[in-house]
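tokens incoming
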């Protein structure tokens, strides 16, 4: 099996090299990997740091187009049997990719998500602030809405870790340019009849002062609309 790991990057000068180092060290038995970095028009020193790294495939967007657009560029250039997205901010530990790919290799699933939310809110940890608590309940609501409309229980529709076969998208058009990529690809995989297996993972969420880019209200509203829209249209 060949796995394509797509890393969308926008202004991640503090973490990009650490993420790539972790991916370089990642060894999955009987699985070869390719790493595709898509720099989405970074304006900090991310590009200069990427120029020093020779081993992954690196693609540059001349201007910022959004996470969804960066992921689509990565998918277009992927040659693996399976695809997974890895954020460049170190919230997600690449070691969990081994856990996600295990049920694929065992023939137990074709699509696997890493769920952060198969739990109650952590009021002594990341959800101790109102902003992160709002994000937690917003994601749970969107995941519940997805479950009701598409007929399969999902706890974390917004997770970055989505592992799916590349050919699942062979006749699918992804329209999203921003964070609405998450509900769109989930909706279209479910509408094609794929069952999503969720594997619990832990993350180290960073704060907005550290560069977190998701806007809970704005991006949550877009996700809500996309969940509804793609239930009834393509």
């Amino acid at each position: 099996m060949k796995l394509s790991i797509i890393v969308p990057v926008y202004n991640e000068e503090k973490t990009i090299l650490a993420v790539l180092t972790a991916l370089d060290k990642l060894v999955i038995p009987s699985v070869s990997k390719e790493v595709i970095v898509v720099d989405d028009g970074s304006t900090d020193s991310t590009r200069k740091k990427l120029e020093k790294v020779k081993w992954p495939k690196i693609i540059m967007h001349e201007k910022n187009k959004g996470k969804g657009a960066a992921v689509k560029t990565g998918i277009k250039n992927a040659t693996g049997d399976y695809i997974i997205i890895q954020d460049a901010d170190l919230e997600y530990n690449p070691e969990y990719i081994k856990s996600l790919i295990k049920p694929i290799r065992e023939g137990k699933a074709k699509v696997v998500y890493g769920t952060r939310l198969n739990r109650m809110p952590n009021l002594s940890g990341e959800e101790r602030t109102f902003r992160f608590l709002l994000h937690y309940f917003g994601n749970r609501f969107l995941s519940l809405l997805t479950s009701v409309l598409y007929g399969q229980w999902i706890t974390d529709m917004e997770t970055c870790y989505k592992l799916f076969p590349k050919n699942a998208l062979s006749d699918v058009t992804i329209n999203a340019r921003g964070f609405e990529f998450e509900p769109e690809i989930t909706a279209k995989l479910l509408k094609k009849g794929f069952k999503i297996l969720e594997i619990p993972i832990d993350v180290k969420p960073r704060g907005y002062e550290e560069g977190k880019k998701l806007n809970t209200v704005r991006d949550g509203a877009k996700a809500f609309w996309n969940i509804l829209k793609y239930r009834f249209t393509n």
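note: The mean pLDDT is 91.
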